[in-house]
Amino acid sequence: MQRPSFSIYDASAGSGKTYALVKEYLKIILVAPKNDAYRNILAITFTNKAVHEMKSRIVGSLSEFAKDEPAQKAQDLMQDLAIDTELSIIQIKTKSQQIIKHIIHNYAAFDISTIDKFTHKVIRAFAHDLNLPMTFEVTLDTENLLIEAVDAIIAQAGEDETLTKLLIDFTMEKTDDDKSWDISREILETGRLVLNENNRNEITHFQDKSIAEFVEIKNKLAEACKVLEKESVVFAEEALSLIDKNGIDTKSFSAGHFPKHLLSIQEGKFNPKNKTYHEFDDIKINKTAKDRAIIENIVPDLLQFLDKVYKTFEKINFYKAFLKNITPLSLLNTVSNELAKIQEEQNVLSISEFNAIIHREIQNQPAPFIYERLGERYRHFFIDEFQDTSEMQWQNLIPLIDNALSGQDDFGVKGTLMIVGDPKQSIYRWRGGKAEQFIELSKDQNPFNNPDKKLEHLDKNYRSYSQIIEFNNDFFKLLSNEFEHLDYKDLYENHSHQKTNDKTGGYVNISFIPKVETSEEDEEMLDKTDLYVLATLNTIQKSVQKGFQYKDIVILTRKRDQGIAIANYLTEQGIPLLSSETLMIQNATEVRLIIHLLKYLKNSSDLESKANFLQYLAQNSQDKLPIHDFIAQGMALFQETDFENWLMSFDVSLSFQNIRKKSLYEAVETIIAKFLSPALSKGKGGGVFNRVDKNDLIESDKLGYMTGGNYSHLLIEKAKEMRKEPTHAEKILWMELKSKSLEDYKFRQQHLIDDFIVDFVCLSKKLVVEVDGDYHFAEEQVQLDNNRTITLNKLGYKVIRFTNEQVTKNISEVLKRIQEELILQEIFLNSSSPVMAPSPSGRVGEGNAYVQYFLDIVLERDIRNQAGISDFLNFWDKNAEKFSIPSPEGTNAVRIMTIHKSKGLEFPVVIFPFAEEDYNRKPKDKLWLNAEEQDFGLPKVLIDNSSAVEGFGEEAAEVYNQKKQEELLDNINVLYVALTRAEEQLYVISNMNLSSKGEIPKNNMCSFFINYLGNKGEFDENKLEYEFGNATKLSSEKQHVDTSKTIPLVAEILNPKNIKIAQREALMWGTHQQEAIEYGNVIHEILSFIKTKADVDLAITKSIESGLITFSQKETVFKTIQEIVNHSELSTYFSEGNEIMNEQTIIQKEGKTIKPDRMVVTKEKDVFLLDYKTGIHNSKYQLQLENYQHAIELMGFKVVKKALVYIGLSIDVVHL
Question: What pLDDT is recorded for position 617?
């Protein structure tokens, strides 16, 4: 099997690119001598969903190959692989079994990731070398960082004189232009230049410029404009003088146009667009003019004067265009510096910085050091969706890939690169994606030293029925005539045609909405949007009548507001929907309730939030009063205590003040426990909780083994306390889980599931991790743990257990085992449908996905920003629209999404309304133009993108026209993505927009469809609907087995009166095994709270409150503690007047740490050392104390006493 070093796959829509990628990947690992060849492969794509699909396809294929009877698709793939690799089916089967086993045990080395994640991994690994903090957090929230930076800059007004004057001048400029005086938007736009890769090269020219230098350039340009305007007047006057000197009558010029043209220049009224005189024949002379010969003689001189005027005005307009942008641009460095400062303060790194950091590091380095180690590991590379790869991302990868392509591994196998893409689906230019990059590579460009390169065209469409394929072939070939750029024209003329598959038939429908007539008399007249939504509803109803289900249908829109308009109308008509709106977390009733309550907690005078809260309670938690009366009574109570007492009469017990004292996350947890539990929902809404009768109780000796009653808030409180006081082993494991040792798996600590508090849980993979102390080996506890595991298994959770010793002594093995289990869970969960999310209907269901996702947001915000309620609400107001739950599969509902979101997806029926985008009205990016540095002090300038740019000279006109062609390509690419999503039926709903003369509009999407129909000889402006193919449903129904499960939030409501709770360690004391040891450990922990004898009572109270001991054990513990602190041999250790350090960590010179249990430092700097032990005497403890002594004396202290205190059922003091 001979593979080219560099393969380029041009894969049009539906052509099986993922199949091609997976097949090539499998070929490499199947023929490799070792079973871990996947370790040497890096596969990169652009979305987490694509990563998941590729991993699933590879693992799924290997799993099927390994079976005795693989599925038919797997058998077909095996046959293809057998031919290509010259391996037998038995060899493939055996090898697959070995590889899949290896991958499961080393899943982290199965490297398929997004390019951002790969870059992050590189930066994280080399953070020190890149001068980054080792513990930086990655943030996707770049926009809010930027807003924060702009706010900080504006806040500096009045402090920095230069900055203040600039901001005032900028405000005045905007006011003079009749624009809003608010300058923050323009500064924000400038800030976005810093973050956008498309501008990286240009803004480097500005990075060393101060505000003062920009002000100087601005003044210089403004003065230059005045000078040039005077020069143009002089040129006009010289031309007029020439006419006058030659005795020419101005009436000799046709209609006097030419002299008037010169006068307009002289008087400063010249319109630069009227540059009409360039050639001899442009100056019209009356045929009867007596001085015609004289005029013709001086025409060359007149044209020369005008040429100077025109070029002068080109400069003037160019300068003025830059002056419009120079003020916000002068803040470029200020914004950049402020942004860097904020990131440093918050210890975050914006994801937008990743590529630039790598790029700066590898420039001009023949062998970049950050790739040295990676270059040894990776030998084969796959890049999916290459058309979305930015220029900088590609440049960053080239050195790493070039190293692999230039050499061979130990088995003589050369490195390879396979890139897959389609420039027709390049729709992300605004974030760096360039179709041109793929086009150039597809031609002659090769950035690698190895010339072995091959281009493959995947030109068969496996997705769509023949009618849709043929329509798109004809339609996009016709659109190729829209381009002037030869490469873009060739792309659609010669590379958009696809071969059909064996699915014959299908249906395409192009319709136009009726013309909107304006009438003052008919106020009820439908507007354009109404007509589109009506046409969309009609299309859905017809599709359902043909046998399609709602879930077969997708509505694609170019803009979000179009989707919202359709969603609102379809909802009113009872059509089930899934859209970005219905999946938004902020739209869920439960989340709105939490937000309303947080707003009330922030400000109890917020009557709107209070009313919304009362409305929820009225509908879900009480049935004593009519809804209106309930709300009215509550709103009339302005004193919070009165309000709380009134709520108590409806069995709603809470203290707003107590909730305010909690952390953000704890406050939200409390709200959920109190108001989103099914017991409060009056049994309405068909909740799916398993309610337990109050008398159906299981008494337990350990927290968490309980059912029944109203006790969830106490469990939450208990979980909170346990999070604050983890065991040493729990602390170690939590640090590893938090530091993302397990990549994208998010864990929670001491989390409530059903009625259990589990140590750690990954909710997305339903994996519970328990860390057990020694008492778990007791017979009674083993049985309790088994019962607990059985219950969690029934809820869909996998439970794995580790001992304290395993965690503390071999954390790497523990993490490896957790990772293996996560992979197995992922494979298991993928074999059934993903988690179903309830619609935001107001019902409180089991494991409400919206609440779970909201809790994740709150937790991340709380941990990273230590945010209070007020901070979080500000954050939520700005960002709520960004958060949504994943779209659940299998739900019988019409999907609404933007075209960009649909990329890579396919649907039986696609409806594309609002197909009439006016491309002239689109907001255009600004343009970078070359400038003469002696004039500007800068090699590049930023100007607005408009037709006026064509008048700034030939070079500017060329840049402008190229930009227009790029925008046209991007627009047609978006249309290509939309029209190639359909499998069986495609509906386009447009608007003719014909002029009163019947002319087809230019630069409007509707013209593409009108021209297509005209080319077919079909178009008639009186005909609104055109059909191609047969509308009968051809496909058979795909069976979907709904095995989805929800993740439970809090599944049972518990009653404290019927439950006996044993507090944390206290449970151990009822067992015989290791009783003394466990009792000693508890005493040891309590002693860490005590500095002198006076602290004993407070320490005991704290121990009870934290759950370390129960109230009934208070006397026993108190007696033991008193025995220690008052022991005749230990009195000096607990006397007052000394400095006490309990469990104080000491870092030794070689970097190791020690932690003596008690260190007493006298005023003379003498030290008494005390260490508490349990169990039998051991000589190693003496050695430990001697090590402590040695370390402390190196610090300049003198250890004069040291002792070991063995704590068990009796106290034994050993002096050393």
Answer: 87
Spelled out in words, what is the top-level CATH class assigned to the domain 6-55+107-134+358-458? Answer: alpha beta
Place of tokens 């405000």: 171
- The CATH code for residues 717-832 is 3.40.960.10
Does residue 427 have a pLDDT over 70? yes
**12 marked ligand binding residue:** yes
Contacts of 740 (CB under 8 A, 6+ apart): none
The reply, when asked if residue 708 is annotated as ligand binding, is: no
State pLDDT tens for residues 103-136: 988 888 899 999 988 888 888 877 777 778 777 8
Question: Binding site annotation covers 17?
Answer: yes
Q: Is 1202 helix (H, G, I), strand (E, B) or coil?
A: strand
Residue tagged 């590729």 (tokens): 54
Structure tokens at 18: 């993922």
Q: What is the mean pLDDT of residues 527-533?
A: 90
13 is in an annotated binding site: yes
What homologous superfamily is domain 486-516+527-582+890-928+951-1029 in, according to CATH?
P-loop containing nucleotide triphosphate hydrolases (3.40.50.300)
Token pair for 194: 């810093």
Which residues are CB-neighbours of 751 under 8 A, at least 6 positions away? Answer: 719, 757, 758, 760, 761, 763
CB atoms within 10 A of CB 531: 18
Given 1.25.40.10, 3.30.470.20, 3.30.200.100, 3.90.320.10, which CATH number is that of 1068-1215? 3.90.320.10
Instruction: Identify any residues that bridge with 10 across adjacent strands, giving them in sequence order.
Output: 421, 457
Calculate mean pLDDT across residues 691-720.
41
Average the pLDDT over each of 293-307, 408-422, 621-635, 1099-1113 and give the range with the smallest value.
Answer: 1099-1113
506 is annotated as contributing to ligand binding:
no
Q: Is 580 flagged in the annotation as binding?
A: no
Residue type, 500: T
Nearest to 611 by CA among 626, 625, 630, 639: 630
**Is 247 assigned to a binding site?**
no
Pick the residue with more confidence: 65 or 364? 65
- Residue whose token pair is 């003091």: 1213
Q: Which of 257-271, 627-641, 957-971, 1059-1073 has the highest mean pLDDT?
A: 957-971
Give me the pLDDT at residue 207, please: 77
Asked, colleague to colleague, whether 585-677+844-882 and 1068-1215 share their fold, the answer is no
State CA 984 to chain mean position distance.
32
- H-helix segments, 481-582: 486-494, 528-545, 560-572
Is 16 annotated in a binding site? The answer is yes
Task: Report the interhelical angle of 486-494 vs 954-979 (nearest 10°).
Answer: 20
Determine the Cα–Cα distance for residues 303 and 301; give it in Å rounded to an integer. Answer: 5
Q: Please, are residues 429 and 966 in contact by the beta-carbon 8 Å criterion?
A: yes
